[in-house]
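F.,

This is the one I mentioned.
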């Protein structure tokens, strides 16, 4: 089983919101702000019992609105069970772990494994993945994405880590299919700028954000 589930999930917008450690009430509020802005996909990293409560609440709200909510920082098989129990629609991991990928496969939970090297990508491909999370994107830089497109032209990358409205365009122009944004969403101005990507597939010709060289 591959992870082509993400073909449809990311078809509406190339932005995913990551809501980490905000508490249930704040996470729900920011999730609704993101959805209202046109950012359809939300990830809730699960590292504490409070995070599990947030995931459960946001996943339920997402189902009501028809939006997918995933569990992030999935690094063990136990996390896979917790994600399913909370109603997560997908899983996201910081690295590429065959055991975790197999646990997701057996559970029927679409997963984005994290990659930072060509070897990671090859492992992901061997496990059937066509979508991966490039992490940490701000350290890897847009140039890394361009380099990886050579040997892996069919791989779809979700750039994650240090992404905001200032550098999102640089990563998308470099070949990322999606940018995942975390702490920047706490800033109303950043949310407004990122929402410009949320009306449909990213149109490079109409981009108003700069191709910022400081993204490297």
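My design for it:
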């Amino acid at each position: 089983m591959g992870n082509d589930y993400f073909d449809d999930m990311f078809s509406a917008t190339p932005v995913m919101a990551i809501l980490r450690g905000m508490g249930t009430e704040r996470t729900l509020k920011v999730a609704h702000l993101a959805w209202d802005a046109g950012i359809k996909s939300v990830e809730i990293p699960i590292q504490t019992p409070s995070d599990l409560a947030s995931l459960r609440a946001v996943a339920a709200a997402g189902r009501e609105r028809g939006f997918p909510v995933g569990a992030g920082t999935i690094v063990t098989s136990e996390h896979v069970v917790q994600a399913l129990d909370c109603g997560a629609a997908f899983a996201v991991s910081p690295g590429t772990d065959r055991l975790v990928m197999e646990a997701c496969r057996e559970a029927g939970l679409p997963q984005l494994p994290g990659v930072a090297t060509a070897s990671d990508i090859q492992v992901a491909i061997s496990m059937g993945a066509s979508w991966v999370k490039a992490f940490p994107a701000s350290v890897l830089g847009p140039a890394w994405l361009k380099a990886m497109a050579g040997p892996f032209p069919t791989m779809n990358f979700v750039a994650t880590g240090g992404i905001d409205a200032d550098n999102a365009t640089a990563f998308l122009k470099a070949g990322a299919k999606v940018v995942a944004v975390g702490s920047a969403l706490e800033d109303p101005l950043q949310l407004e700028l990122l929402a410009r990507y949320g009306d449909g597939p990213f149109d490079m010709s109409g981009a108003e954000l700069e191709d910022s060289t400081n993204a490297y």
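Confidence is low (pLDDT under 50) at residues 200-216.

Talk soon.
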